[in-house]
Sequence to fold (56 residues):
Amino acid sequence: MNYTPEMEKGMQQTHKMCYAEYERKLENRIAVEKRRQKEYEQCKHMVAEIDSHIHN
Fold:
């Protein structure tokens, strides 16, 4: 995968680590992916809630 400067900046801003650090340690990858999953679930719940308000 080609890792762009924008992706590096996003990783730094969101997870406070560089991509090399993310790749180097399994613990870092697991922590980042758990946060991503939690954020995804929260967004999915928010969208479902908004949709239910729109369709009522």
Q: What stands out?
A: The chain is about 80% helix and 0% strand. The mean pLDDT is 93. The longest helix spans residues 26-54. The radius of gyration is 15 Å.
